[in-house]
Write a structure and sequence with these properties.
alpha+beta; four-stranded mixed sheet; 17 strands; 29% strand
Amino acid sequence: MYSTLSGVPVKIWEIRSDDEDQPGLKVFEASFLRLLDKLTNGCKIEINETGTLLSYKPGFIRGGHVEHDCGSERAVGWFLEGILPLAPFAKEPFHLVLTGITNDHVDTSVDTIKNVTLPLLKHFGIEGNLNLQIKKRGAPPLGGGRVEFVCPVIRELRPIDLTDPGLIKRIRGVAYSTRVSPQTSNRVVTSARALLNRLLPDVYIYTDHFSGKNSGSSPGFALSLVAESTTGMLISAEVTAQQGTLPEELGHLGSKLLLEEIKNGGCLDQAHQSLFLLFMVLCPEDVSRLQLGSLGRHSIQTLRLLKDYFGVMFKIKEDKVTNTVLLSCLGSGFKNVNRRMT
């Protein structure tokens, strides 16, 4: 992702070389490289026989209509997180059809991407025909889900100044279930509301039950929650049922995770910090500011990668009163050179 946007070739060696059973690239990582090859022109990918050495030379982002099977090792959200930063800078608008697992306990779900990630991108000027439709649900381990992602192309991003988290005014969510009793979703909602209504009364959680051909290949249920503030900020949390999880336990855990994210402070939850940091670097040569709660380990590593690939360093200022940090940087002036002239 960083290599494709910056145009800097990358070589990674000793990939799990100490793993005697399965050294080298995993199946889902090779699948992501195949997807990247479909969406770009001119890229060159070389992998040695053992899969422990990867050489990648980026091409230009083509976009267009592409279908891809994500398999059953990682969820569709894992693939979308890597592709989403590329989509606005393609030659043609993205129309990406992905099949596989739509919700699991490891990766960001398609519900969070649809209801939180995409609406937040309007702050950078990415609007218009930006949408994610869930055609079929796919629970682990067999998946069987299908989603369609559409994204327009833009010339350049818009700098942001998000320093006021505001106060939480309402909470929305969706509890989905597939190949289980429809009452399962209702039990999840009841348990979640029992805790969230202690914070505020405006809580509404939809139920989304899939059956028949749209229910995927495995039974499952999950909960995705979104808290909206008075300044338009969105904070998310989600949980997916594993073997033996009761609906009441899932609803309580999901609500607890959302309240922890709200308590953490800042304008974003930890799941969206890295994406916003990247887009801040890709903005025009103007200052962007963002107030966050505590930085996650993934976000800290993102700051290191952004310095290596784009040469941009962030100024970080701690606010001891609110226990938050203010990050600011000067954009690199990135422009979409792939877009067709109109």
